[in-house]
Amino acid sequence: MIESFLREEGLAYLQDREGSLMVPFAETPVGSKLEVWFTAEGDANAIYRITGRCPLPVTSAVADWYQVCNEWNFAFRWPTVYLARDSEASRYQLVLEGQVDLACGISRELFALFSRNVLTGCFGFFTWLEQLEHRQLARVADAASGVASDLDR
Fold first, then answer.
1. 152 found inside a domain
2. pTM
3. Domain extent for 80
4. Which end of the chain has a smaller Cβ tally under 10 Å, C or N?
5. Cα dihedral sign for 24, 133, 94, 102?
6. How far apart are CA 97 and CA 82, in angstroms?
7. Under 8 Å between Cβ of 98 and 116
8. How many CB atoms lie within 10 A of CB 139?
9. CA-to-CA distance for 111 and 4, rounded, in angstroms?
10. Per residue in 52-95, pLDDT tens?
């Protein structure tokens, strides 16, 4: 079902030894490429998981990223976003994830809808992140202009 969905969406994918499928995407606003993995896991492969992974720059402030992830997760259902240590213990990656239990079955339409929602949400996170940065820069500029006008008096 996963491969059929990816083919129907026209997404080029790679397959690893375990059978997981990965779709590589272009560079994100954090300066790293996004890899989105589509996997079936657990007993009888009943858990369908979509996981986006995006390495963070080494210079990233981890505490700030935790706050960003919390703000996103508070405001949006999919995907859940969190930080995980990369294979290099000193690096972190953003993980964007959605999962659903298929043990009771799922229609092709609902499978595709869930997949599109999570995938679209991954890109939505980066759009939201850019907007967040613009709002923060605007607040800094407003605060700076307030200080400048106070100095003019």
1. no
2. 0.84
3. 2-146
4. C
5. negative
6. 8
7. no
8. 10
9. 11
10. 999 887 666 888 889 999 999 999 988 999 999 877 667 889 99
